Structure formats: C-alpha cells, structure tokens
Automatic annotation (TrEMBL):
Gene3D superfamilies: alpha/beta hydrolase (3.40.50.1820). Keywords: Hydrolase. The keyword NAD does not apply. This is Acetyl esterase/lipase. It comes from the Bacteria. The keyword Hydrolase applies. GO terms for molecular function: hydrolase activity. Residues 28-62 are annotated as: Disordered. Residues 78-283 form the Alpha/beta hydrolase fold-3 domain. It comes from Actinomadura citrea.
C-alpha cells in the first residue's frame, strides 16, 4: 500500500483491535483514548448530558449536546452517530470532534449513545438514532436550533446509521433533513465490492472486521436484511437530503460509498464526494496534514449546506 507517510506513521502507533474477542476489543478501544487535557474549544462550547425518550416504552437514549456560545439563534443542528463497527463506542468516542464542529460550524451538535450490538442487534441502534433525531426536531426551539436546518452525520458504522436514518425520515414522513454527512460509511452487508474483496488485511479496518460487524449487528437475520439496516439495499434513493461523502483509499468500505454516491446522483440527490489518496479507514482523526485538510474541507461544506437562507431582496422603490 502506498500510504501517505504521516498516515503510515499514525497507523504504526494505533493498537490493533480484534472484533472476534469483543470484550478485549472494547477494553482496548476504551484504553486507546487515554486522559486528555481540556479541549481547545472548551471556552466556546457548552456541553450538557441528558437522556431522551427512546423508541419504545421504557427505553431511554443518552445524548450529549454541544452548544456554541454565540448569539445567533436559531442555529443549525447536527445529530451525530459515532463509529465502532456497531459494537464499540460511546459519548466519549467523538467528544473532541463534536465540540470542534459546534464551534467551527456554529451548530448545535447532538451526539447519540445508541445501543450496541450484539447485546442489542438491529433495529435497536438505528431506532435509538431516529428517536434522537425526532426529539431534536420537536425541541429545536428549546435547543436554539432551526428545525429547517437539521443534518445527520456519522463515520463508519455511524455513517451507515446516518444514511439509514435519512431513509427512515423519508419513509416515515419526517423529520425533514437538510444534509446527510457520511464519512466512509458502512452501507452494505453483502460484502461483495472490489475493495471489500481486496482489502482483507488493511490496518485499522479490514474485510474481516466488516464481516464480524455485520454479523453482530444483524443477529440471526439470514438474507432478509431491510434497507434501514443496510442502506445500500434500498431500491429507491429519491427524496433524500443532499449528501456529503468522505472516502478513504485503502478501505474495504471504499467502493460501497462510491456506489452509494453514484446511486444518489442518479436519483437526483445532490452529492459532494471527497476521496483522499494514500489514506486508511478513520484517517480523518489522525495527526496528518491530509487529515487536517479533510476536516477543513468538511467543516466548510457543512457550513455551506446549513447556512441560513439569504433574506429576500426587496427592490428599492423607484424615485418619481
């Protein structure tokens, strides 16, 4: 693999995670974060943990709300779902990124601690995500957010969940979405793309990881996989919100993201796609110049998509 040199160095420092031993994988993932100093955005963003009503009676969904300290209400809102192969992760996974987005985009960011597989296989996690979106839309005024400027976003499994939630919002008659942000999303349980067949031992995430992730997430399903679980199975992609997709070069998920982008375009959905050479799955959080550039481009794109509509221009009255 011809990796970007800074990405290659970051990969060498990343501890391997074996999803076959899920308990060990979770422990290793949690330990990889380690203690961190207060984030650079801490003076610019307020952070609040709360628990929302879940998708069914007796269920609750923990979320973390990041609100920029800016007097420009209503702000756009972004409902974000962390990655982790559907089986790993929590509200700490994307903590630094969520605060950065709140500050740099000027948006209320709601990070969702959805239920994980295999303890809670599909549809538990995605229904938690949809419940959070529904709550945000219904309580936009309370959050200081604009219900007409709501996005969903996620990386890897979280990107797949974001795509699924966009489909659910369309199929269930709302909430309306202004944007879906899909970073190297997990979209297709069939594992039959060229990149999935080629990248069986790539660092960070391989085809073996993908196989185990889908097995955990789908549970006992055998071929009967709905589009709300694997969005690539959706027969109809019309009526979906504009999409921003970020892709990695040496990633088994690469081609399903490219195929989904092409199908969205064919369905009349505006798509902005950025594919970065010499990168691996999850590269955007690594300490590398190409990663910083990818983050900069993404933030600018989200700001552009979620900016408020320009005020109507009223022609000046002609002088008599």
């Amino acid at each position: 693999m011809d990796l970007d040199p800074e990405i290659a160095e970051a990969v060498r420092r990343f501890p391997p995670i074996d999803l076959a031993d899920l308990a060990a994988a979770r422990t290793s993932f949690a330990a990889s974060g380690g203690p961190t100093p207060p984030p650079e955005w801490s003076d610019d963003v307020t952070v609040t943990d709360r628990t929302l009503p879940g998708p069914s009676s007796g269920t609750r969904v923990p979320v973390r709300v990041y609100t920029p300290r800016r007097d420009d209400d209503p702000k756009p809102a972004i409902v974000r779902f962390h990655g982790g192969s559907f089986v790993i992760g929590d509200l700490e996974t994307d903590h630094l990124d969520c605060g950065s987005w709140a500050r740099d985009i000027g948006a209320v960011v709601v990070d969702v601690d959805y239920r994980l597989a295999p303890e809670a296989p599909f549809p538990a996690g995605v229904e938690d995500c949809f419940a959070a979106l529904t709550w945000v839309a219904a309580h936009a005024a309370e959050l200081g957010a604009d219900p007409a400027r709501i996005a969903v976003a996620g990386s890897s499994a979280g990107g797949g969940l974001a795509a699924a939630v966009a489909l659910m919002a369309r199929d269930r008659g709302g909430p309306a979405l202004a944007l879906q942000v899909l970073n190297y999303p997990a979209l297709d349980d069939r594992l039959d793309t060229p990149s999935m067949r080629a990248f069986t031992d790539t660092p960070i995430f391989s085809a073996r990881h993908a196989e185990l992730a889908w097995r955990y997430y789908l549970g006992e399903r055998d071929g009967d996989v709905p589009a709300h679980a694997a969005p690539a199975r959706a027969a109809d992609l019309t009526g979906l919100p504009p999409a921003f997709l970020l892709g990695c070069d040496f990633d088994p998920l690469r081609d399903e993201g490219l195929r989904y982008a092409a199908r969205l375009l064919d369905a009349g959905v505006p798509v902005e796609l950025h594919q970065y050479p010499g990168t691996v799955h999850g590269f955007d959080v690594m300490p590398a110049r190409i990663s910083a550039e990818a983050r900069r481009v993404q933030v600018a794109a989200i700001r552009r998509h979620l900016r408020p509509p320009a005020p109507a221009r009223i022609p000046a009255r002609e002088r008599p």
